[in-house]
Amino acid sequence: MTDTIGWAVSGARMPYPEAVTAMQSRAEAIARGEAGELVWLLEHDPLYTAGVRARPEDLQQPDRFPVHVTGRGGQYTYHGPGQRVAYVMLDLSKRDRDVRKFVRDLEQWLINTLDAFNIQAERRCDRVGVWVNRTQPGGPRREDKIAAIGIRLHRWVSFHGVALNVEPDLDHFSTIIPCGISDPRYGVTSLVDLGLPVTMDEVDLALHKAFEGVFGATRREEAPPIWKR
Q1: Residue 183 pLDDT > 80, yes or no?
Q2: CA distance linking residue 99 with residue 158, whole number of Å
Q3: CA 134 from chain center: how many Å?
Q4: Is 125 labeled as catalytic in the residue annotation?
Q5: Pick the residue with more confidence: 75 or 170?
Q6: Helices vs. strands in the chain: H and E counts, helices first
Q7: Which of 168, 183, 222, 226 could tie 83 with a disulfide, CB 3.0–4.6 Å?
Q8: Comparing C-alpha atoms, which of 82, 76, 75, 105 is closest to residue 173?
Q9: Which neighbouring-strand residues pair with 150?
Q10: pLDDT tens for residues 165-180?
Q11: What's the DSSP call for residue 225?
Q12: Which of 179, 200, 207, 210 does the annotation list as catalytic?
């Protein structure tokens, strides 16, 4: 059995570099056995992040928003207002040391969250993340990504996590090739784009319930402290 997992929500937008520093500090403390596991929900101002496999040509307008090089898996992605980011700091040594299973569990968490809003989201074996089929009758196949996943492990503790599109400005995705996928059949969507004007609080409740169904019990906790540089 594992201890309950901390669950923290930041109401204000968090500065990205400082949030990442706080996340890494907490993950290191978890690895040393000095802190408990934590899921931290937050939002950022508009920015792009480059994962370890990011290609320069996929950033088509470098000066539009700040660009942060990060150690998570994957390529370029966008974070901004209206997108719920969840930094997931879990100790896989207390569970199965199986990274593929962990990613599938993260996908299932998001799929179950979206099911609460009657959205049928799906995983794809060749594309990480969570997708919605937007194909119209008689039309060409179309799938849109509604949630992205990018993680890193250090001493079997995860950090970085997932990003669910609630009501971001989808035009902000237009000057990157998200996750390196340029196929015109694959786009980006959000809950509001799908006709569901839900609030962030409603999404947080659904995320919380679905998380506990996949990963186990949680406890409320204060968000990690942020120190301005």
Answers
A1: no
A2: 10
A3: 21
A4: no
A5: 170
A6: 3, 12
A7: 168
A8: 76
A9: 161
A10: 999 999 999 888 765 5
A11: P
A12: 179
